Amino acid sequence: MAKAYVKIWVKAGKERDVRDQLLDFDQVMTADITAGEQDILSLIEAPSYENLLDLVMKKLRCIEGVDKTVTNLILEDH
Prior knowledge:
78 residues; Alpha-Beta Plaits
């Protein structure tokens, strides 16, 4: 199982809309609105890193209101 934390920056006032759309994807485990560097921090799981990156690049980045994403692949967890 491939996992990553995705930091998401969104247009002002679109935080809840983007969060709700993120949670429509089965691979999105969490989508938390945050105060700090990013607007939303999301945990994503997919069968492979290729599937995970495909989801981020082709679907999540296309959500209206998303300005920028940074994907942090999880290499080891416990």
